[in-house]
Amino acid sequence: xxxxxxxxxxxxxxxxxxxxxxxxxxxxxxxxxxxxxxxxxxxxxxxxxxxxxxxxxxxxxxxxxxxxxxxxxxxxxxxxxxxxxxxxxxxxxxxxxxxxxxxxxxxxxxxxxxxxxxxxxxxxxxxxxxxxxxxxxxxxxxxxxxxxxxxxxxxxxxxxxxxxxxxxxxxxxxxxxxxxxxxxxxxxxxxxxxxxxxxxxxxxxxxxxxxxxxxxxxxxxxxxxxxxxxxxxxxxxxxxxxxxxxxxxxxxxxxxxxxxxxxxxxxxxxxxxxxxxxxxxxxxxxxxxxxxxxxxxxxxxxxxxxxxxxxxxxxxxxxxxxxxxxxxxxxxxxxxxxxxxxxxxxxxxxxxxxxxxxxxxxxxxxxxxxxxxxxxxxxxxxxxxxxxxxxxxxxxxxxxxxxxxxxxxxxxxxxxxxxxxxxxxxxxxxxxxxxxxxxxxxxxxxxxxxxxxxxxxxxxxxxxxxxx
Length: 468
Hints:
By secondary structure, the chain is mainly α. Helix content is 72%, strand content 0%. The chain has 27 helices and no strands. The radius of gyration is 32 Å and the shape is flat.
């Protein structure tokens, strides 16, 4: 094999992409530890913070990526205060990964400072639009979870004194009082604060603090969470009677009720647990919860009759209809199944409903006519549902749906944007793929549009992209 000609790095970079170069570099570094050592040596200060770290500047630098780029969630206009938080959190997460190295090494104080400043800065900038966008919320959730873990890692470092830990707890309390966070994002920070303050306390002292916090809660939800913590704490200490007393005092809190029921199940007091779960529930969510608890006991007892009744109730109330359908079909005798199945479907779904679960049930049962009728009743997504269940419908059914689509697409429409015309052409191409009748209908619709809207050049240009 001939040796490679002399080629410079610059020449190589002119013919390969940056992505290819990065991939090769990563692969080479994994096989050559000396390259990793050289990189670590080159960026030692950046990795391990061997120079003075300006934590405030590090964190604030991440927030410079705030952008005004999205339409307002509420009115679809342009709102000057609307911001893209995903950019911010991507850079914050990179900073957190660096700070985690500091936390495990010789700079845990700097790591703590980074974590606290991230919580503080996010709280100060928090706004309604922050939770209006699901992507922003997901990035925030992930970032704040990693911030909590960073603080926990740094606090485990033996270089952090008790006084410094208490100072962290005080600063966390100040941040939490800003009441900026929703959706339990503050739960991790609150947990860290409480953990710090309860270290080196006796069990009774910790319990007294937990009771004080529970009694100071202003909302039912937060108080319920504190009561759960008290229950779990008492059970961990094998103080079962005191835990039961907590439930007796607050029987209306569902989580305590479920924990007490689980305790009864562990003690094989199944009848008492059933009696507890069967207490009247005022809303569907609670009804599902307690029905599931009862079902667990019925399965343990092998009580098929009550298992079937519980599954029927869950089919009507819960969201996993297909799962309960499968269980019911396996338990109910074949001769009784069809009647029960039809009654459950009619009670659970309206005549024009076609959810994913219902579609699976109709397909599994071979109820082609019902599936066809429900597809035809879809006003906004007739084409999409037809495509989804195309293989389950007869040619006659598809041709009938194509005729319905012809009527809908024949209706006059006003002047639209080019993007809207492109979407309409894409829909015509999808109709043409349904069947031979679909191609015929699309040809007729294209001819109709050309004659009817001959003065719309954008539409005429897009119609050339119809494939029939």
